[in-house]
Each structure stands twice: as C-alpha cells, then as structure tokens.
Amino acid sequence: MYTLLDKGIDFDTLEFDNWQPFLFFKSGNLLSNKEKNAILISCPNDKTYKIEIYTQVGKKWIKNDELNLIDANPTQFYLDFKDYDFDGQKDIYLQRSASNGWSLSRGCLIIVNPQTKKLMEHKEANSLANMNPDFENKIVYTDEIDYDSNGRKVNRRINKWKKDVLISYEIDKSKEIKF
After folding, report:
1. Cα Rg of the chain, angstroms
2. Cβ atoms of residues 104 and 154 within 8 Å
3. CB contact at 8 A, 26 and 79
4. Exposed/middle/buried for 91, CB within 10 Å: 0-12, 13-18, 19+?
5. pLDDT tens digits, the chain, 179 residues: what are they?
6. Partners of 111 in the β-ladder
C-alpha cells in the first residue's frame, strides 16, 4: 500500500480505492492550494479505520500524523475536505453512515492543525448530520429530522466553535424544510 505514496510523488493528483482489503489513497492539493498532501486510509480490522496524513517535501513524503478511529463502516465510506473550523486549513470529514429518504450523512470530523498537520478527532460532531461550514458567518450548519403529527420535517441546526469544541446552539426555524 505504501507503493501508492511513491507513485503519488510523480502526479499532481492520484486516487485509488480497494474494497477488500479496504484501502483508500488520495494525493494532491487536498488540504490547501499551497502544498501537496496525501491521505491513506485502511481498515486493519473490521471496526477500525487507520488514517495517515503526509506532506510532500521535495521528492519525499513526510508523515505528519495518524489516527485509529473506531466504528469503521467501509460500505458507507465517503471523504470530504472543507475548512470546518475556519482557520484557512481544509479539514477532513469521513462519513460513517448515510440514511435513506432525506439523507443524513453522519461521520467523523477530523480537524487538521495548519502548522503541524496533526489530526484531531472531534467526537462531539459524530451525531451531527450533513455538516456544512459557512465561512462568512463562522457557523457549521447541520440537519436534523423531527417527527410531529404532520409527519417529518428537516430542521437546520446552527453549530459554533467554542474553545475548540463544536457546540449546537439552536435550531433556526427559518431554515426549516417540511415534506
């Protein structure tokens, strides 16, 4: 699997995935436009994702950090890179589940330190669905489904960072979607 790192040096971007054994590799300007990074995700067992992050320096990869995350679910795997904590550094969202109907994507939010590229899992975000950062307002919007006598409705939840923890503050009724 580390052969992919060697191959990734020579290409602007490279992506590879394999189902069994589970392996995902992607390299390119994933975390910023200023440097080339690589992410390698594997499942050492049925319940754990191993995530490794690298930065290209010259013709070599330097390993910045790795995380072992419990509750792997390769059948629901999806990866996204956005700046969730508004520090100018793209972070990592790893989906663990997505519901049917109005899809609620839940997963693991991993914040990347802009200086060290160290990874920090934010477990408080595990239950949040459809995370969408709003850089202008420094808010992370999420969706929740509520059930009442008229059926179900999707409510938009407002989440803000407080002392490096993502906190849900209120439900913005003006963003309510009924169906």
Report:
1. 18
2. no
3. yes
4. buried
5. 678 988 899 889 999 999 999 999 999 999 999 999 999 999 998 889 999 999 999 999 999 999 998 888 999 999 999 999 999 999 999 999 998 877 899 999 999 999 999 999 999 999 999 999 999 999 999 998 877 777 767 788 899 999 999 998 766 555 444 43
6. 120
CA–CA distance, 85 with 106 (Å, rounded to integer): 17
Residue 73's nearest CA partner among 101, 38, 112, 45 is 45
Task: Report the 3 state secondary structure along the chain.
Answer: CCHHHHHHCCCCCEEEEECCCCEEEEEECCCCCCCCEEEEEEEEECCEEEEEEEEEECCEEEEEEEEEEECCCHHHCEEEEECCCCCCCCEEEEEEEECCCCCCEEEEEEEECCCCCCEEEEHHHCCCEEEEEECCCCEEEEEEEEEECCEEEEEEEEEEEECCEEEEEEEEEEEEEEC
- Cβ atoms of 140 and 159 closer than 8 Å: yes
Distance CA 35, CA 100 (A): 37
Amino acid of residue 170:
E
d(CA 67, CA 110): 9
